[in-house]
Specification:
Elements: H1 2-30, H2 37-70, E1 87-92, E2 95-100, E3 106-108, H3 116-151
Antiparallel strand pairs: 1-2, 2-3
Helix pairs in contact: 1-2, 2-3
Length: 152
């Protein structure tokens, strides 16, 4: 499980860097003042996606720490284990470390900060809305151009 989490950290981090580069490049090449609305929306969508990926990578790193602590052997005195029972699992959407008790109950250990999952969702939705808006504005402009060419 730990190796899978570390692989996902690398993938999410690389995606965040790539999206940040694309978004910053798009906004700086065209200039946000003189750039068209679809270009600016695409740049903003990429930057919001980069933020979502970066926060998701941060959450995955906190899960790595929780998994390493839970799998740690030894005297069981320090560091405190997230789960005192042997059963635990990791949820990827939303990010969380779930402990399973002996009577079958489950609870979130609280290792992932409470702000992280809502922030990832908000940034991902912002990016999606900007990307969809960019396509919509492009489509409206293309249709208006066709009507103008057909009428003239």
């Amino acid at each position: 499980m730990l190796l899978l989490l570390l692989l996902l950290v690398v993938i999410a981090s690389a995606t965040a860097v790539a999206l940040c580069g694309y978004g910053a490049g798009t906004l700086s090449d065209r200039g946000s003042r003189r750039g068209s609305a679809p270009v600016v929306l695409r740049g903003l969508a990429a930057l919001a996606g980069a933020g979502a990926c970066a926060l998701y990578a941060w959450g995955l790193l906190t899960l790595c720490g929780a998994v390493m602590t839970a799998q740690d052997g030894g005297a069981d005195s320090t560091p405190p284990r997230p789960c005192r029972t042997p059963g635990h699992s990791v949820t990827f959407i939303p990010l969380g470390f779930v402990c399973e008790t002996t009577d079958g109950d489950r609870y979130d250990s609280g290792d992932v900060p409470g702000y992280l999952n809502p922030a990832v969702v908000a940034l991902a939705l912002t990016g999606a809305v900007c990307a969809i808006g960019s396509g919509y504005v492009s489509e409206l402009r293309a249709r208006a151009e066709l009507r103008k060419d057909g009428a003239g």
